[in-house]
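Z., the sequence and structure:
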Amino acid sequence: MVEDIAPPKLKKVGRKRVAPISSKTLTLKEKYTKAKRSAKQTLKAENRKVEKAREKYILAQRKAKTKKENLKNIENALSGKESQIVEEDKLGQLPPTIQDVVAEKEVIFRPNEGPQTEFLAASEQEVFYGGARGGGKSYAMLVDPLRYCHKTHHRALLLRRSMPELRDLISHSQRLYTRAFPGAKWREQEKEWRFPSGARIEFGYAENLTDVLRYQGQSYTWIGIDELPQYPTPEIYNFLRSSLRSVDPEIPVYMRATGNPGNVGSTWVREMFVEPAESNTPFTLEIETPLGVKKITRRFIPAKLQDNPYLMQTDDYMIMLSSLPEVQRKQFLEGDWDAFEGSAFPEFNRNVHVIEPFEIPHNWVKFRTCDWGYASAACCLWIAIDFENYLYVYRELYTQKVTADLFAQKVLELEHGEYIKYGVLDSSTWAKRGDAGPSIAETMIREGCSWRPSDRSPRSRISGKLELHKRLYVDPDINYPGIFFFPNCINTVRTLPLLPTDKNNPEDVDTNAEDHAYDALRYGCMSRPLHPHSLQTHWNRPQDVEFKPADKVFGY
């Protein structure tokens, strides 16, 4: 029996009549689309496999080429055909048998582990290697420009402030360079080394801008300044940077410097290299150029006497540095950039007084203290007090050219949700100097930012400075100071150790210096005076002793 299938009804589409697509036909189309999509995905996956295989092949090819070049360089160096600087990481890529052959040869220079190695391996454009004396900085400066002396277009300049200071470096170079590069010639008149490849290392001096003009228009791929802080301003350093350029893309350009704290230029060197980032941490400066925003990478590498194993073979040099006065001992032995002669607060130690931030407990007392300024800076500090009367400066607001009402609004915004018990503001802000409107303090109070005036009694400045000295002092019994700072209080930590004493009044700080954070801190310390034994903790607090007067009538 044959089933009678009725013809499908035609639908009119435009002028033509077409049959509707059956469910069976639609399923076949879906299957076709799915198969097509699956095929595309499979093809993409196979293409990715091919691409990964190609990348592995290219990488293996590069490694083989690098290994071949290293082998060729080592062979030329061992046979004396060509002078090469053999780096340990490249030597580690070679077969053990070749490493053994190289190890049998005399090692002319091997950097000390730690900062000296990090300095020589640094890839940043500008690096400052500084700190304590005896860390091996000057010798590292002699070795660093040798890296590219096998290339024709390499030209280096090594500077000191004066010619007598340069002689010691030249003497060391004469013992080192000819052994590293046989055939290297020293030209006394030009104060220049010339290498078989055509590379040159020039030794020079520049005591002032007139001297540095000798290098104007010159082109150097490497510039090094030994004892950079001997220069009172950054003018010479910046002038020399303009001569740093390379015509060979295989030779990068580097600016290198070394130095110790305690010289006339320690402040600007500290601001340029030490303060912007943690030690040994690269940081970047964005520079506006005609071609857009470009970047300069910098790094500060700290040096200590303990980094030099040769000077640490005996204790003589360390004992000598330890016997120096406190400020010089901090500079030369510890490499402390906050220590300098004439400092108002020599007891400040960044490693002791600056601590890792933590969440302030809700039941600690909090208050704020402020030194106001419009043309000069205004500084507001937030301070917490624990149950043992230790102070923790945990927040800072440091502004300039901000009106009193906007400043008050910013203060309230920063402390939103906190309970601030009181605020101390410079009492001079309550004064009216002929203006018809409210005083600065009244303007802030009207915004809802309440204050009380700071102590302006006679000798209050002296008393405030002494109060801060007490807080900064590290009690030897408990090994703690009375005040700590969070690292986000950048300007307070920056300016406090650099404050000089007043030449006319050594009991006070120089008011011409940047003392805004200090004044705010002084107001805060005066509002929480330190009493004897108030910082002793419960586990080492002395037992209460009953007072017995010698004379019961007069009480003494």
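DSSP finds 17 helices and 17 strands in the chain. Residues 91 and 124 are 23 Å apart (CA to CA).

Let me know what you think.
H.
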